[in-house]
Amino acid sequence: MILLSHPTGNEFVREALAAFDRAGILGEFWTTISWNPEARIDRLFPQSVRDLFVRRSFSESVRSRTHTVPLREAIRLFAGAIGVTSKHETGAFSIDAVLRALDRKVAGRLRKIDNCDAIYAYEDGALQSFRAARDLGLKRIYDLPIGYWRVGQRIFAEEKEREPEWASTLTGTLDSAEKLGRKDDELRLATRVIVASTFTKQTLGDAPSTAKIDIVAYGAPPPISDVIRKSTGRLKVLFAGSLGQRKGLSYLLDAVEKLKGAVELTLLGRKAASGCAPLESAVRKHRWLPTLSHAGVLREMQSHDVLVLPSLFEGFGLVILEAMAQGTPVITTDHTAGPDVIENGTDGFIVPVRSAEAIAERLDLLASDPERLIAIKSMAKQKAASRGWAMYRQRLVEVAREVMAS
């Protein structure tokens, strides 16, 4: 049986839980908040609070095996909702504090149960539980959702030189040496490492780990409609993700400026940092949606002509497949899962990192050739349909069974 630990339970965590649950190998799930939207208490909260917690709801089958450590995370969520943030990494209610508290609880739990064969945990939340699992002779499966930190630090240092006005949005540069050292310790303790893209695997070339690395690619959601939107008027361009320079946002903004009003840009996501002058200017100039439900995100994707994700350092970029599933092609870089998913020029485009010129060229091509845009939209939708979450669940179970049997 597997004990899976994650503080929030996002989309790929939900799919991992579903995979292990359906395969009959999920023992326990440890998280911070498990919300039951059908419970009577749910009706007592205003809609804004219910929207905040509904993202932490799980299937009844998973919920029956879920253990929670809610206090720090609940305070962090409520504080964030009113604009109060905890000090990065060291704050009592920072996401790092939430991760460490959950990790300690899981480590203690492992020492008390006797029906666990493996623990499945994620970056920054695995160290104490992996140490306990090692001492108990349990397998340790480590999920790395983003590239190896040393590669990221090199990219961020280069970017601070190239785009100094955007430096404050590179929040990964704020991580302490202690935190970065913990990441390496987690990798050393791993029995098996799971990544979602070829790019992430490549970044682990210099990592202090001898564990086998398996690529288990994320999946696409079903389309919300069979309709493929026909472009009318200006090309509608969408960016979805944290608004910051790790996502290469300045290069998209420069590309849009080069096209001089030929495209209409929507920015979907929260600001990675406050006080960044070009970012503050961008959210005033362009349509900005700080947050939406997942269903709302998919609707926005379908209502646009193209999604641009010019990331400098990514793990997968789940928005790539989410957009393609809605018939919205993607322009992205080879520092994402783009090369694993997209056939360049057929169902999307791969551009070099840090190239506003290349982004502008692809946008101009799509804006000036409506027939080709429709063809690429159709091919993107077909590609996503062939890469559903069922493939992810099947492959993940195969790897987990292999690890437990080894």
Care to give the gist of this entry?
With 406 residues, the protein is an alpha/beta fold. It has helices at residues 11-22, 47-54, 60-63, 71-81, 95-110, 127-136, 149-162, 177-189, 198-203, 249-258, 277-285, 294-302, 319-325, 338-341, 356-368, 370-385, 389-405; strands spanning 2-5, 26-31, 66-68, 118-122, 139-143, 192-195, 212-215, 235-240, 263-268, 287-289, 306-309, 330-333, 348-351. The chain folds into 2 domains: 2-219 and 389-405, Glycogen Phosphorylase B (Rossmann fold), CATH 3.40.50.2000; 235-385, Rossmann fold, CATH 3.40.50.
N-to-C span: 14 Å
* Global structural class: alpha/beta
Strand content: 5-15%
Helix content: 40-55%
> Quick one: biggest sheet?
7 strands, parallel
CATH top level of the largest domain is Alpha Beta
- Backbone CA Rg: 21 Å
Q: Any guess at the CATH architecture of the largest domain? A: 3-Layer(aba) Sandwich
Strand neighbour order, sheet with most strands: 3-2-1-4-5-6-7
CATH superfamily of the largest domain: Glycogen Phosphorylase B
Number of helices: 17
Q: What is the residue-mean pLDDT, rounded to a whole number?
A: 93
Secondary structure tally: strands: 13
CATH topology tier name of the largest domain? Rossmann fold
Low-confidence stretches: none
Overall, the morphology is globular
> What order do the SSEs take from the amino end to the carboxyl end, as H and E?
EHEHHEHHEHEHHEHEEHEHEHEHEHEHHH
Tally of structural domains: 2
